[in-house]
């Protein structure tokens, strides 16, 4: 499925020449990709040549190895400004207490600096000294990129991150202990009683992220680019219609790994000022970027990794310059943390609803057994909008003869009454083994019209990237779990026969 974009290995000098060339113009960037993909500026190398398990995998990444070139250096990527300041105060106090700290932070996340030599506002002496102690390498690698043939713009990336808890001995720790120690913010015993954490640790954890580009309209010259980020390796929620739910939860992603997904993709698209000429840099803004929207709708439940998602959102806003209004955190309904998303993070909130009765939602979204519908909506009304008028989005996947009846629409109207919201009706993206079918277009349109007649904004969402399994509910890392697929198919069959 994946084709290497280039098989030439660049030296440091040739790489510098490539990176100094003018950035591909936004309007024509995808045309150039389609005409000659071999011209893509990327480095092809192996994930870990010393590992027999991964040595045959071809890795496409823009610049950075999965580990710093010098193990004695500390990687700054993924650190907040305060963390960076505390670190630099010990080694470079004259930088930590001056404007230079702000410049390092800005060049790392907003300008796309690949090393300290790219931060030209620093003196040569400071750049050399910093490189002896620190690196700004990205975390992990883009191992694969798959381009959608259907819409030509959507592309899915497979990331490989080193597993920090990997043990070489046969008697390894269980993934339960790993997830608990690895910045977990919730007791994994309460996540799901039906799914156990993986027992065997691997040297690399793999997750997927998706880039979705919407071509410009008459009122939007630059178009809209969205990156869908993953927050966990696998998922514990086992939603009946979601392909990600067939993979066991392995661990939470660190904030550095979440941020590196975005920064890696922006490097891959050459969407940083570092690739622009001087005139283009003066005109560069976030709105004119190829990436101007972030959604936490990839693998995992973001609120079960709240600590790292919170830190990542801070860096995305303060460092990368992406407005909080352009960031959406989606949850299946972790009620005890939902108020924090609205009131503390200040980003947009999306709730994966998908059903209007507890009986049905228990089967579609098992988390409902812990946080039932009435608790969910009480939390939203009492704790999210008491002193906040922020708009909320409810996600509702349309499943044929499961949750697409007018009776469901009537109950939905009652549930969201007086809540400033939109209901995104998502056409189900089918995948092998799911057991569900997407509702017919006519029934989806009738459902939408009913909601509109009752004053509820209910757009129909047809996801891009279906042909590469990159659409909503289709992401999955490379750890197969056939038993979970069979179980989900049985759930789908049971639901259809009982309705």
From TrEMBL:
Residues 221-467 form the Radical SAM core domain. It is found in: Cytoplasm. The keyword Ubl conjugation does not apply. Keywords: 4Fe-4S, Cytoplasm, Iron, Iron-sulfur, Metal-binding, Methyltransferase, Mitochondrion, rRNA processing, S-adenosyl-L-methionine, Transferase, tRNA processing. GO terms for molecular function: 4 iron, 4 sulfur cluster binding; metal ion binding; RNA methyltransferase activity. The keyword rRNA processing applies. GO terms for cellular component: cytoplasm. GO terms for biological process: rRNA base methylation; tRNA methylation. Its cofactor is [4Fe-4S] cluster. InterPro entries: Aldolase_TIM, Methyltransferase_A, RlmN_N, RNA_MTrfase_RlmN, rRNA_lsu_MTrfase_RlmN/Cfr, rSAM, rSAM_sf. Pfam families: Radical_SAM, RlmN_N. This is Radical SAM core domain-containing protein. It comes from Naegleria fowleri (Brain eating amoeba).
């Amino acid at each position: 499925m994946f084709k290497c974009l280039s098989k030439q290995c660049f030296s440091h000098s040739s790489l510098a020449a490539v990176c100094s060339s003018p950035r591909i113009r936004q309007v024509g960037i995808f045309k150039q990709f389609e005409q000659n993909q071999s011209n893509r500026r990327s480095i092809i190398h192996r994930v870990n040549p010393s590992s027999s398990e991964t040595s045959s995998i071809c890795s496409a990444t823009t610049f950075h190895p999965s580990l710093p070139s010098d193990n004695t250096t500390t990687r700054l990527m993924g650190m907040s400004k305060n963390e960076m300041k505390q670190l630099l105060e010990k080694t470079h106090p004259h930088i930590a207490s001056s404007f230079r700290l702000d410049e390092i932070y800005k060049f790392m996340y907003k300008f796309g600096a690949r090393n300290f030599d790219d931060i030209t506002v620093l003196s040569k002496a400071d750049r050399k000294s910093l490189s002896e102690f620190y690196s700004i390498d990205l975390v992990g690698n883009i191992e694969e990129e798959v381009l959608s043939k259907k819409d030509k713009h959507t592309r899915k990336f497979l990331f490989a991150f080193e597993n920090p808890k990997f043990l070489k001995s046969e008697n390894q720790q269980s993934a339960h202990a790993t997830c608990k120690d690895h910045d977990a913010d919730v007791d994994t015993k309460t996540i799901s009683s039906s799914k156990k954490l993986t027992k065997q640790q691997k040297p690399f954890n793999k997750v997927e992220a998706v880039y979705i580009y919407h071509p410009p309209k008459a009122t939007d010259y630059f178009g809209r680019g969205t990156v869908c980020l993953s927050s966990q390796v696998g998922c514990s929620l086992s939603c009946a219609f979601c392909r990600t739910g067939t993979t066991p939860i392995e661990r939470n992603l660190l904030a550095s790994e979440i941020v590196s997904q975005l920064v890696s993709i922006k490097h891959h698209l050459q969407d940083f000022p570092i690739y622009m000429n001087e005139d283009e840099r003066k005109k560069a803004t976030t709105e004119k970027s190829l990436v101007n929207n972030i959604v936490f709708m990839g693998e995992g439940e973001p609120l079960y990794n709240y600590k790292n998602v919170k830190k990542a959102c801070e860096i995305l806003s303060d460092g990368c310059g992406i407005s909080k209004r352009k960031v959406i955190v989606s949850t299946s309904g972790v009620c005890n943390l939902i108020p924090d998303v609205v009131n503390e993070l200040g980003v947009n909130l999306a709730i994966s609803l998908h059903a209007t009765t507890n009986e049905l939602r228990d089967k579609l979204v098992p988390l409902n057994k812990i946080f039932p519908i009435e608790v969910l909506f009480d939390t939203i009304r009492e704790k999210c909008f008491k002193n906040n008028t922020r708009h909320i989005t409810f996600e509702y996947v349309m499943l044929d003869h499961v949750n697409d009846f007018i009776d469901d629409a009537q109950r939905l109207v009652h549930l969201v009454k007086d809540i400033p919201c939109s209901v995104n009706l998502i056409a189900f993206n089918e995948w092998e083994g799911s057991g569900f079918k997407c509702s017919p277009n006519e029934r989806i349109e009738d459902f939408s019209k009913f909601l509109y007649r009752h004053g509820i904004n209910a757009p129909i969402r047809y996801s891009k990237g279906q042909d590469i399994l990159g659409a909503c509910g289709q992401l999955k890392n490379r750890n197969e779990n056939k038993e979970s697929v069979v179980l989900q198919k049985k759930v789908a069959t049971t639901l259809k026969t009982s309705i």
